[in-house]
Amino acid sequence: MDAVFCKNGHSYDPEKYSSCPYCGVQVELGSTRPYGGGATAGAERPPAQADATRAERTPTPKYRPGAEGETVHVWKKRMGGIDPVVGWLVCVEGPDRGRDFRIHTERNTIGRSAIMDIAITGDEAISRENHAILSYNPRRHTFRIAPGDGRGLAYLNDEEVISPVELKPYDRIEIGESTLLFIPFCGEQFAWPVESKAEPSD
Asked: Which stretches of sequence are listed as region Disordered (predicted)?
């Protein structure tokens, strides 16, 4: 199940909790009493001992996006913190019509969830995660689309995508109720330089 974020940025499973378990919910219960009026009903509680040890509650750390060991993409590291754009998908039909989505180097997951590389959040017919995968090979300067592991199908120029297929400029990709045009930036005319791997020193 997909994690949900509360207004304070805490992540939680909505199948287990109806609201954020970290934020807590104040509930007015009023006074309580034992069921059935047993022997302890109305009995006074003994006072707490002064030397008794109380367990202290450890505060829950605040959620900070990317703080829990985010993997830094090799291209982002090479480009001084920037994951360079290599192309775009432009929505020409569907709920997000007119909107563009950036394509970055190597694998780009496509889905409705905000954690996807290409998040098409306005189309409810798109699988939440991994509806399709669009990749850019920085060595060959080629783009491919492949089916994801989501339930929905992807179509390239009206043909179902059942295995990775190379993309050409202005190809039409259909997922959910959206039609997207593929616009490459990198290719024969321009490409981000591929740096050779550093030799280990003795």
From this structure: 35-69
Could you report the average pLDDT of every consecutive run of 10 residues in the chain (202 residues)? 76 74 58 59 62 54 49 55 89 97 95 95 95 95 95 96 97 98 90 64 52
3-state DSSP percent of the chain in helix, strand and coil, to 5: 0, 30, 70
Q: In this structure, what CATH number is given to the domain that contains residue 175?
A: 2.60.200.20
109: nearest Cα among 125, 98, 120: 120
Classify residue 158 as exposed, middle or buried by CB count within 10 Å of its CB (0-12, 13-18, 19+): exposed
pLDDT value at position 64? 45
**How far apart are the C-alpha atoms of 86 and 184, rounded to whole Å?**
6
**Long-range Cβ contact pairs of 58-61 (< 8 A, separation 24 or more):** 60/10, 60/22
Collapsed DSSP state (helix, strand, coil) of residue 77: helix
- Tokens representing 184 are 């490459």
Q: Are residues 4 and 88 in the same domain?
A: no
d(CA 17, CA 5): 12
